[in-house]
């Protein structure tokens, strides 16, 4: 598949069920990020958060959730910024995970 499914005006998938790991990498390419095991662990937990709470996590809940679920990764805002090469951590992690933009993001 060479094209992405439908995206909204902010570059997020319109339908989160269209997400695949290949689509995640295509979305990550826009940030110059090559997804590796650690990225996919984080993305998997972000998608689990969405399934549980029915909304995309903003930065603080995202970090708190990841710290609890992935203690071995030593998650912090700074680490997420480095991994995903962005200061807009929640926005871009959710976008790569195929989820809507968190409600409080610009």
TrEMBL record:
EC number(s) of the enzyme?
2.8.1.-
Keywords, A to Z, come to: Cytoplasm, Transferase
Localization per record: Cytoplasm
Instruction: Provide the transmembrane region boundaries.
Output: none
Q: Name one GO molecular function term.
A: sulfur carrier activity
Give the main location.
cytoplasm
Tell me which residues this entry annotates as catalytic.
105
Q: Which Pfam families match?
A: DsrC (PF04358)
Which Gene3D superfamilies does the annotation name? DsrC-like protein, C-terminal domain
Is Cell membrane a UniProt keyword of this protein? no
InterPro entries given for it?
A: DsrC-like_C, DsrC-like_dom_sf, DsrC/TusE
GO BP term, pick one: tRNA wobble position uridine thiolation
NCBIfam families assigned to the protein according to its UniProt record, in alphabetical order: dsrC_tusE_dsvC
Biological role: Part of a sulfur-relay system.
* Similarity comment: family membership: Belongs to the dsrC/tusE family.
- According to UniProt, the name of this protein is Sulfurtransferase
Q: Which organism is it from?
A: Moraxella catarrhalis (Branhamella catarrhalis)
């Amino acid at each position: 598949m060479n094209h992405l499914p439908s995206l909204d005006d902010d570059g997020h998938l319109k339908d989160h069920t269209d997400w695949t790991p290949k689509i995640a990498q295509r979305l990550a390419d826009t940030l110059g990020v090559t997804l590796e095991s650690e990225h996919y662990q984080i993305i998997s937990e972000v998608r689990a958060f969405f399934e549980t709470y029915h909304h995309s996590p903003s930065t603080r809940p995202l970090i708190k959730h990841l710290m609890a679920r992935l203690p071995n990764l030593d998650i912090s805002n700074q680490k997420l910024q480095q991994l995903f090469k962005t200061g807009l951590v929640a926005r871009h992690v959710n976008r790569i995970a195929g989820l809507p933009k968190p409600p409080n993001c610009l």
